[in-house]
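To whoever is covering the structure queue this week,

Two jobs came back overnight. Logging them here so there's a record in the thread.

Job A:
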Amino acid sequence: MLTLLLLLTSICSAAVSNDLYTRSNLPTSFEWDSSGILIAPKNDSRDIAGIKDPSIIQVDGTYHVFASTAKESGYSLVYLNFTDFSDANSAPFYYLDQTAIGTGYRAAPQIFYFEPHNLWYLIYQNGNAAYSTNPDLSNPAGWSAPTNFFASEPDIIADNIGNGYWVDMWVICDALNCYLFSSDDNGHLYRSETTFSDFPAGMGNTVIALSDETDIYDVYEASNVYHIGDSQYLLLVEAIGSDGNRYFRSWTSTNLTGTWTGLANTESNPFARWNNVQFNGTAWTKSISHGEMIRTEVDQTMTISTEEFRYLYQGVDPAASEDYNALPWRLGLLVQT
């Protein structure tokens, strides 16, 4: 009997060892420490109300941050870099409307290096899903003019968006395809795709990847999708809780087109929410909102280590009551404990 049990265990282990191993690297519940406010708007002629939607990578010891700037008149993009978070708030802002990216609505950036082209890609929203490229990350003036991924809003989004907005584009590639995830502020997460060899051209075949028809705020916006090793993926989506505060839910999948299985995805057991975040002193925000993991592997696979998550996020003074675009969003850092 023991011999049979050992044989069955060996067979099962061989069949699913990768799956069990990578899943074991992720806890089923999370705890975080949060910094205070690390990055705030400058007191300059731009007179921005908030800094939002950060995308962050670390290359050769330097952190590179791209973010949205927000005020009542609209959104734009900004870049900064620093080598230590203690210096983050003093890092100069380089406003990207000075580049070929140009003026007008630009928001929610994502930065990565697409190895086949030897180019940095900056993904963002401009009413469409857009990208700019740059051969030299250290030259913020070098970004190209926007190119749209789509001729127009995909039909499936137009049919389901209701009173929402098409927002928060995120690109991730596997060995065969590149996928663009996006949200509609109406309970739907979409996935579009093109072949790896065709990227960035040919984006299409848009489908609903995840949805919640009963509460649109449960699958709201600001998705991140990461490769965590051995064909395992982690999905984060921002929700608006029953108390009106923003937080993140999480899912996992064995492939980018597969079914997403809930990980920590409730208000009582969230990926990141005020109830599982400890602040040093008074909490400066009750919303844990749009952000990104710090990545040291910066290519198109969006690969992150599961050893310790560090998440740069936007938060806001709980007492703030301005219109949404004028809210005083600031950036802080979560460190998994």
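Job B:
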Amino acid sequence: MKTILIMRHGEATPMQADDAARQLTETGHQEASRMGQWLATHHKPDALLVSPYIRAQQTAADATQHISLQFNETCNDITPDGVPQVAADYLETLIAMHPDCNTWLVVAHMPIVSYLVDQLSPGHMPIFNTGAIAVIEYDEHKQRSHYLSIHSPNNVEI
């Protein structure tokens, strides 16, 4: 059994012409760091898949600064306009290719984070606050997932 953690980036600067260049605000950095502390205590991811957008990269860096990763990849399929089926298929392929990685952290954006949860665990499409993480249990042999919960920076205990 594997764990998939799907995380929305922390709070970012307002919309601008170059959406990919938006950066985290100070609050966004704090959200990502807080969730990183929670991750280190409760889940300890060993694999990371992250959007190429700056705010997602910054979130991943803040959230994993105290975590040792075996696998780390930037993925163009998990941008805000990514296709959830493609992203889910790619994630499942990576999980199969890296059997030693048991806990996968995916850092991306709305709306794909919600759609990705639904793609993996149909009928569950949570709305993510900034910095929030959905926890999914994944049976790689049956290729079936079970949505467990969602956690936000303002409601986690460290």
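Note for Job B: The beta strands are 2-8, 47-50, 71-74, 103-108, 133-139, 144-151.

Please reply-all if you pick these up so we don't duplicate work.
Q.
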